[in-house]
Design brief:
Radius of gyration: 22 Å
Structural class: mainly beta
Strand content: over 45%
Number of strands: 21
Largest sheet: 16 strands, antiparallel, barrel
Order of helices and strands: HHEEEEEEEEEEEEEEEEEEEEE
CATH architecture: Beta Barrel
CATH superfamily: Porin
CATH topology: Porin
Length: about 425
Amino acid sequence: MKNYHLLIGLLFLAGIPSVDALGQYAPDAKDADRAYSAVSAADAQDARLGLAVPLTITGGILDTRRAEPDDPSAPSWTAGFRLLTTPQLKLGSHWYIYSAIQVYSSPFFYQDKFSADRYYEIDLLQGFVGYTRAWGKATLGLRVGQLSTAFGAFPLRYDDAANPLLDQPLAYTLLKLRGDQLPCGVADFSSQPNVVFNCGGAGVDSYGVQPSTLYGLPAAEADLSWRRVDARLQLSASSPANPESIFASGRHPQATLGGGYTIHQGFRVGMSAFRGPWLDNAVIPFLSSGSNLSAFPASGLGFDAQWARGHWIASAEWQRFVLNYPGFRIAPATSFGYVELKRIMSPRWYAATRVNYQQNNRPEDATTRTGEPYVPNRQAYEVAVGFRPNRFQLLKVGYEWMVVQGGPQTHDNVLGVQFVTSINGLAKALK
C-alpha cells in the first residue's frame, strides 16, 4: 500500500484522480471528488519538474440559533466563503514542495456559529519540503515544515470537495478548556461561550482549544509503508492540543506516533497517539515552586477505520484526550467517536450521514469533584445530499441535529448549503 499521507500530497503532481486513505482509487473516482489536473498523467509522471496550483472555492449559507447565548440579536441566517489553494512543485523524481493555504470569512464552519464575531482569516495549513523513495514494496517519505498533525484521520480531508458532509466531526471542534490560563478548581468550568479561568495566565479572550488541531504545526515527519503496513512518526514543535509557531517561546517539542494495517483492499484500520506538555508559558509564573509544564501533559489516543466497496464508503474514529492542570486529582478528559457513511446514488448524486458523540468526565480538584461532566455531553447527527452539475462543481445540502445534555434540543441544530467549485488552476510540466 502506498503511503497515504504522501499520496494525498502528490496526487495533483501525478495527474491522477483523487486517491482515498485506503491507498486505492475511490469508488467514485470517475466523478472525482477533486478535479483532475490539467497536466496529462503521462506528461506529469515523465516530467522531472512540474508545477500545479489547484483551487477550491466554496460559498456557504448557515441557518442556526447557536450564536444567541453570545449575542441575542445575532441573525440566524449567515453567509460565508472559503478559498483553499494547494500550490505544489515537483523537483525531480524524489523531491517536491507542497502547501495548503485557506482564506475564509466567519461564520463559514459550523463551529464558527457559536460566536457572533465576524472576521476574515488566512491560515497556512501546510507548507513543507518532501522527499520520497521506493524500494520494491517499501516506500519511505520524509517531510519538514508546516504539517497537518499525524494524529487522527480526518485532517487529511480538509478540502470541502473531499468531505461529503458540511460539518467537521465533534472530535475536531472546540473544548471548553484553554492552555494559557489556569483554573482554580472545578468551579471554573462552565458552559459559557467564553472560557475564563481565574488562577493566572493570559488576559485575552478564548472560546477554547481543539484537542487535536485541524491546522498545521511546525514539524518533521517520516512515513514508511511496506506491503499492508504503514507507520508514521512526527516530531512537532508543540502539542497538537495547543500548536505554537516555531518562533514562539511557549513551544515544547514532542512526538506523535501513528500507523495502520490494510486487512484487505478497501479495508484499513489504524491508530495514533501523542503525549507531552501543552500548557502555555504564560502560566509558568503561577505554578507552584519546583513545578514545570512537563508535569502537566496532554495526551491523545485514537483508533480509525476506512472501508470502501462498490457504491459504499465508510469511515470511523474513536479518540480520548486527557488535558492535565495543576491542582487536579482527576484531570478533564473527553472521548469522541463518529461513524460516517456515504452512498453513491449515481454519477451525479450521493447521500451521506455522520453520527457523533462526545462524552466528558467529572474532574476532581484538591477538595471537590464535579457532580456532572465538566461540560455537557453531546451527540450530533448529520445528513447531507450532494449533486454534481459537472465534474468541477458540487452542491451540498445538509442538516445537523445536536443533542446537548440538559440543554435546548433544537437550539444548536444547523441547516447548511455549500456550493463547491474546483479549479485546476496553473498546471504545467516544466521539464
